Amino acid sequence: MSAHMNRFIVGLVFVIFFVISFLTNILGPLVPDIITGFHVSLTLAAVLPFSFFIAYGVMSVPAGFLVERWGEKKLLVASFVLGAAGSLSFALVPTYAVALVSLFVMGSGMAALQVAINPLLRVAGGEQHFAYNSAFAQLVFGLASFVSPLVYTYLVSGLSSRSDPLLRLLGNVTPADLPWASVYWLFAVATVAMAIFIGVLRLPTVQRTADESAGTLEMYRTLLRNPTVWLYFFCVIAYVGSEQGAADWMSQFLFRYHGLDPHVAGATSVSRFWGLLTAGCLIGMVLLKLFDSRKVLIAFSLGALAMLTLALFGPANVAVLAFPSIGLFASIMWPTLVSLSLNSVPTHHGPLAGILCTGIMGGAVLPLLIGYVGDLYGLRAGMMLLYVTFGCILSVGFWARPIISNAVIRSRKKAPVAAAALCAVVPLRHAQAEPAAYLPLSEPQPVLEVAQSWEGDQQPHTLSVLELNRDGYRYWGWYGLNHGRGMGLARSNDLVHWTKFEKNPLWTNARWPSVLEGADHTLYLAVTRNYDTPTSHIVLATSIDGIHLTEVKTLVAAVENQRNQNPNLFRDPLSGDFLLTFYRGNDRDYFDIVSKRARRIEDLDNAPEKLLLHSQETVAAPTLLYVRGSGGHKGVYYLATEIFPHRYNERDPGVWQVKVFSADRPDGRFEPVAGNPIESDGRACLFQHELQGRFYGYQCRLDAATDRWKMELVTAPLPK
Length: 720
Fold this sequence. Notes:
Layout: H1 3-24, H2 27-38, H3 42-70, H4 72-92, H5 96-125, H6 130-158, H7 165-173, H8 183-199, E1 207-209, H9 217-224, H10 227-258, H11 262-290, H12 293-313, H13 316-330, H14 333-344, H15 349-358, H16 362-377, H17 379-383, H18 385-399, H19 415-424, E2 445-447, E3 460-470, E4 473-481, E5 486-492, E6 498-500, E7 507-508, E8 511-517, E9 523-529, E10 537-543, E11 550-556, E12 563-571, E13 578-585, E14 591-598, E15 609-615, E16 618-627, E17 636-644, E18 657-663, E19 671-672, E20 683-691, E21 694-703, E22 708-717
Helix pairs in contact: 1-5, 1-6, 2-3, 2-10, 2-11, 3-4, 3-5, 3-15, 3-16, 4-5, 4-8, 6-11, 10-11, 10-13, 10-14, 10-15, 10-16, 10-18, 11-13, 11-19, 12-13, 12-18
């Protein structure tokens, strides 16, 4: 996809953020009109925003699974269709009962949208710009929150005069006693237009990282057994409840206790609340570079509590300023809570994000409780529940113990620079490392060209090499055939010219051998069994002589409707741990790269799984390599994979390619290196080796003319 198209998609994502915020944050100004128009109590008025936000609790996790099954485009269209259905139903039949259902439907659509657009923003905007684009998206979100109450004021105040064509048109389709219902016609038009527009677009395919994957049910069960996860979950409920509780009820409070017009003073206060919340994000970005995030959270929580006190107990002129100021101090709470929670749990960040997003249902629970208490004891007493929720957020600053703390500027000389950036009031870009560069590969040269009779019409597809110095050969290599008929042995003294073992095959019903030598010179082989069947799985075999193999155990058992294959054994030179990295998927629209780590190879079968990559397009064949840094610089881990763009979901499929990712840990967060694809033109399965102080990579290439795979060698120098 062209750079111009990518910029267009980024702009589209910003528009989607605007629409989500516009629809979501209009509810606060509507509360007084809901009470008056439907003649309901505070509790029943609060049930309407409850029905909207409870949809987040219901839909956040399922939407994660849906986006992985359907893809971003289908989910985006479906989400806007839901938003259109909800908006249009209420616009046509503006009754309380219809409002309950329509708001739940709209909330479900908005929840699904939030799940889909962040990975899309990362892919279209580029990984290296993701932090900046995310920050800018939040500014767009805040801008819409600021604008929506003003649009509401314009519609409600001007509908009676019908001074322009839009107002005249809306006046003809909106009940005279419910002028505020006109905003739902705007929602309906906007969501229908977005559904049609996205439906005709060609969006980029998202290759999900582990942090963006929905994960598995077992991952959720593991997280839910962790008390820390529950603490952060309830704190997210408290935050969103505080945010929506203040925004939803401030207009009604100003009307009830100070007699201020909800269409003007009330809506303006809500608009300023969201505007200050947006501005506070910029201030927080600077403060989080200067101070520990827990200290910033404590300070801002105390500020929110102080503003709440002035708003609830001060005179009218103080309340109209204090209520919006709560937004300023609430601004850093969401990103700080999310970052602290992710940094406090070592694994399964994708599912954890889904659990935290479920906590958005706090926007349903607390406003309802405020309304209920308000009916019993007065709205001021109801809004005092915000002391409890803001107090919960304050407590995080004292008990949080993140594994990784936020990076701060240690030199006081740099503080004026940050202050100058604050005064400039522009979006600050998080420091981003440039994408790592891969090794400068040589031109490929063919190897293993001479076929043995047992290979038939299949070809060597992979080659795992060790330096053994046995039987007159310095290097031994174990290769697998393309379709899993068996595996063979080849030996060499120069890594270019190979002699195949005359008694091949070593094993039948075997594919993709990956070999390591143990401390006692025992050879360990991870091998795929039952390739190309629903029961493909990975076994561990051992050998003393490299020829006679003994199957020891199953490392990765068969998974129903999925395939486990492409194993890669790797020993981390820094920690000494052993890692098994492999592909799991359905070979159609679900592809995972999974890692297992243990102190001993024999323990890899019981080691926990960690998802490294997820995609709806082909990504498989993982191999790891650690390259030491030059001149004392930190080294880098490279994860080579095979990809096949558009193999199943486009009319014009691509070809096999090699895409490489890098990370600072062998099971860390892998990001694409610069210059991908590293190899193209039908190439795949790059086995990475460090031999003779150089890089040797063995890959296969599909010859389009003969439809046969051929083995190739590429080399590269390594840093000194």
